[in-house]
Specification:
There is one protein chain. This protein is an alpha/beta fold and 421 residues long. The protein has a single domain, classed as Rossmann fold (3-Layer(aba) Sandwich). Helices cover 42% and strands 17% of the residues. The protein has 13 helices and 9 strands. A 9-stranded mixed sheet has the order 1-2-3-5-4-6-7-8-9. A hairpin with an 8-residue loop joins β1 and β2. α1 runs antiparallel to α9, α4 packs across α5 and α6 packs across α13. The chain is globular and about 60 Å long.
């Protein structure tokens, strides 16, 4: 038996051991999810309903936020091709009376969490997760809506890292607020996202005006956004991150691009584990398959056969799903940690240079020594008041003169750009 086969057998044994040790927790989660399936089931009349229609709403006692009433909702959204879909979301409504002009709206987009039904934040046993800043947003007067995205917790597919789908799920969650008790949303709103949610937020900045012209997006914030996809893929394809994100992309992108054969770029081991990894929930319990992906990468078994950006078809899609610079009229704040091992800091250093050169109204917030997950929690106390000030007429000045504290990987960037032209 080869060394590689021995390693893979050992990984399988470890998976079995960890799986058995967490069996009781998984059984309890299955029971909870079974009890929630009726709420998240696709409703009758979906096709005829308008985008943003709320089909179901109920209180969410497992998501207490100081000063707020918490709800879970099921609402109508749509796919980029216009096909109707449903998504779940959490809504946090201040108990304090709404102003006459309506409450300022903050739409939140979460990061990569897995595509299984129990991965949806509104279906979790601990829906708030690391987002303690919800209370700060409520205290600032925001009504907050946090989409699960279509296909996570509801009928799939989930279009992971497809900006046109993410932005539709976000704008339709904002529309849904009109039907949530006590929400009283204003016509102005802002969006904030972390990691994959940062990708979603940046795409929303580009598309919101055409997708939801009846409301006005006045600001965008992103923490550690997955933005410059060719650069990120080039640096992460052979790491544990490559296993986790690669599996979700492999489940998602062919749904948007039916002629794209990603499986040929994936190793035999990767193809074997794709569905288990993509459906595993991150941030709650023990996500066994993704952990094993990190182990596999550490011992030299990558998810992909090689850098997938070398394949012009994949490179083209990665370029298409990379958000473009936002206009100078839309204030933007991006926070990035220098110790991030998931989103390479160099990728957002490249974004800073490119978007500032294009004239974006960008405030770049570099967080020294901060990692990926911590970027969201560290930046939020600054992001929330920055966004709130926009409703009071603040006009941020672009902060593009500072040199990024990390270097842009020029060779990788040039290679990526050549491949996608």
């Amino acid at each position: 038996m080869s060394v590689k086969k021995i390693i893979l057998v050992a990984i399988g044994v470890v998976a079995l051991a960890i799986g058995l040790s967490t069996l009781a927790q998984r059984v309890a989660d299955v029971r909870q999810q079974d009890s929630l399936d009726a709420f998240y089931a696709t409703p009758v009349g979906l096709e005829a309903a308008k985008p943003g229609t709320v089909f179901r709403v109920e209180t969410l006692p497992d998501a207490p936020v100081a000063g707020a009433s918490s709800f879970r909702i099921l609402y109508r959204t749509e796919r980029p091709d216009g096909t109707a879909a449903v998504a779940g979301a959490m809504v946090f409504v201040p108990i304090a009376p709404a102003p006459e002009t309506g409450r300022p709206v903050l739409a939140y987009a979460h990061g990569t969490i897995g595509q299984g039904r129990g991965c949806a934040p509104s279906r979790r046993t601990e829906p708030i997760g690391p987002n303690a800043w919800y209370a700060q947003a409520i205290a600032s007067g925001f009504v907050v809506v946090a989409t699960d995205y279509a296909g996570i917790g509801t009928a799939g597919p989930n279009l992971f890292l497809v900006g046109q789908a993410e932005s539709l799920d976000i704008v339709n969650s904002v529309r849904a607020l009109e039907q949530v008790p006590g929400a009283n949303p204003s016509k102005k709103w802002v969006v904030f996202g972390h990691s994959q949610g940062g990708h979603s937020a940046l795409w929303t900045g580009e598309l919101a005006a055409q997708e939801m012209p009846e409301k006005t997006l006045i600001g965008v914030a992103a923490a550690a956004p997955a933005a410059e996809l060719p650069l990120i893929i080039s640096q992460q394809w052979n790491t544990g991150v490559g296993w986790v994100v690669g599996a979700e992309v492999a489940q998602s992108w062919p749904s948007m691009y039916p002629n794209l054969d990603i499986s040929s770029a994936i190793s035999s081991e990767g193809n074997r584990w794709t569905s288990q990894i993509a459906d595993a929930c991150l941030g709650e319990g023990v996500p066994v398959p993704p952990l094993l992906g990190f182990v596999a990468a550490a011992v030299g078994v990558p998810y992909f056969n090689g850098n997938p950006i070398v394949d012009p078809r994949i490179a083209k899609v990665a370029a298409e799903q990379t958000p473009k610079p936002l206009p100078a009229t839309l204030p933007l704040l991006i926070a990035q940690g220098t110790a991030d091992t998931v989103i390479p800091p160099e990728s957002n250093a490249a974004l800073q240079e490119t978007w500032c050169a294009a004239g974006s109204n960008l405030t770049m917030m570099w967080l020294g020594g901060v990692g990926h997950v911590a970027a969201g929690t560290t930046a939020a106390p600054t992001i929330v008041p920055w966004l709130r000030a926009l409703f009071d007429g603040a006009t941020p000045t672009p902060q593009c003169s500072g040199v990024p504290p990390v270097a842009v990987p020029a060779t990788t960037l040039q290679e990526a750009l050549l491949l996608v032209r």
